[in-house]
């Protein structure tokens, strides 16, 4: 069996295991889903094992599939590292790098800056995915992730990018039409904007109980970009990252001495691809850009 083993089948297996859906895996591999289905069936036939449970929700690994997944990732890691060592990575940085980031940081900070690195490396293509979620590097949802906390599981390399400050804001329009805010006790008389509670994807985003236990959001949005827009529109008070607000004169910071929260951004890369030139170059670029903008994230510090 091993003499005629088709290694394309192993790559196909990894794609389906990571995406959980045949059509999505086929799209990533650039092949027809019928071809991918035949490859998976062929691999199961070669191994004489059922690797996936199929259902209307997609493909989930069986116990045998889980065992193969661990081995397949090890083989993939060895191949990637071999390519990184053999290729003249100091001369050419080329290929796609997908970066997953929280929507506020990705949209406001990273998106306008990536032009510089693709100008410097014509063979490099950067894909930025900005979503309020945790990205799975094991499933290859991203090559590089910006996270709100250091991961405590998995084979990852993480380093802190920066701490960042958050404050309480309201628009000039809103504050002119509502009672003044001189201390925390005044906050219960105001309408608040916050996250949809059951969609808070990280405990670091559960801000409002730290501001006051007497307030509940009347308007809830899944993303910080939407909250920011609603605050500018004068719909209520909101906890926002200082870097997102910047010098926007439409917003006023409230109780700055009493309501100041500090959170962190972490740069996370899977150990298997950390040494790839394109991943290393993009990681360093992000770290350098953040370091050069420290005053944006921590004003006055």
Note down, in words, how this protein is organized.
The chain has 301 residues and is α/β, with parallel strands linked by helices. 39% of the residues lie in helices and 24% in strands. It has helices spanning 7-19, 22-29, 33-47, 63-86, 103-110, 114-120, 172-176, 208-211, 224-232, 242-245, 277-292, 294-297; strands at residues 52-55, 58-61, 95-101, 124-130, 144-147, 156-171, 192-195, 217-221, 237-241, 251-254, 260-270. Strand 7, helix 8 and strand 8 form a beta-alpha-beta unit. It is elongated, with a radius of gyration of 23 Å. The chain starts with 6 loop residues before the first helix and ends with a helix. 30% of the residues are buried.
Radius of gyration: 23 Å
Low-confidence stretches: none
| H-E string | HHHEEHEHHEEEHEHEHEHEEHH
Helix content bin: 25-40%
Summary tags:
24% strand, 301 residues, alpha/beta, 12 helices
Quick overview:
This protein has helices at 7-19, 22-29, 33-47, 63-86, 103-110, 114-120, 172-176, 208-211, 224-232, 242-245, 277-292, 294-297; strands at residues 52-55, 58-61, 95-101, 124-130, 144-147, 156-171, 192-195, 217-221, 237-241, 251-254, 260-270.
Architecture blueprint of SSEs:
Blueprint: H1 7-19, H2 22-29, H3 33-47, E1 52-55, E2 58-61, H4 63-86, E3 95-101, H5 103-110, H6 114-120, E4 124-130, E5 144-147, E6 156-171, H7 172-176, E7 192-195, H8 208-211, E8 217-221, H9 224-232, E9 237-241, H10 242-245, E10 251-254, E11 260-270, H11 277-292, H12 294-297
Parallel strand pairs: 3-4, 3-5, 7-8, 7-9
Antiparallel strand pairs: 1-2, 5-11, 6-9, 6-10, 6-11
């Amino acid at each position: 069996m091993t003499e005629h083993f088709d290694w394309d089948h192993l790559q196909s297996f990894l794609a389906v295991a990571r995406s959980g859906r045949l059509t999505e895996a086929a799209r990533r591999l650039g092949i027809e889903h019928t071809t991918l289905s035949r490859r998976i069936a062929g691999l199961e036939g070669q191994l004489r094992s059922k690797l996936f449970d199929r259902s209307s929700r997609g493909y989930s690994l069986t116990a045998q599939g889980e065992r193969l997944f661990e081995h397949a990732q090890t083989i993939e890691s060895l191949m990637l590292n071999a390519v990184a060592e053999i290729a003249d990575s100091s001369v050419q940085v080329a290929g796609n790098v997908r970066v997953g980031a929280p929507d506020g940081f990705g949209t406001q900070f990273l998106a306008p800056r990536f032009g510089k690195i693709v100008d410097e490396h014509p063979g490099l293509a950067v894909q930025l995915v900005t979503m309020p979620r945790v990205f799975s590097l094991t499933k290859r949802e991203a090559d590089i992730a910006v996270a709100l906390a250091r991961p405590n599981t998995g084979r990852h390399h993480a380093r802190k990018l920066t701490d960042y400050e958050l404050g309480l804001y309201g628009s000039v329009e809103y504050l002119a039409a509502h009672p003044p805010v001189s201390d925390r006790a005044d906050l219960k008389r105001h309408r608040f904007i916050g996250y949809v509670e059951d969609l808070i994807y990280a405990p670091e985003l559960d801000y409002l109980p730290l501001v006051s236990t007497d307030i509940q959001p009347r308007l809830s949005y899944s993303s910080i970009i939407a909250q920011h827009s609603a605050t500018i529109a004068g719909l209520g008070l909101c906890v926002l990252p200082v870097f997102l607000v910047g010098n926007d004169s439409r917003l006023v910071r409230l109780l700055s001495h009493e309501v100041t929260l500090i959170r962190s951004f972490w740069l996370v890369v899977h150990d298997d691809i950390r040494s790839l030139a394109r991943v290393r170059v993009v990681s360093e670029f992000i770290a350098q850009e953040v370091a050069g903008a420290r005053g944006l994230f921590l004003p006055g510090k």
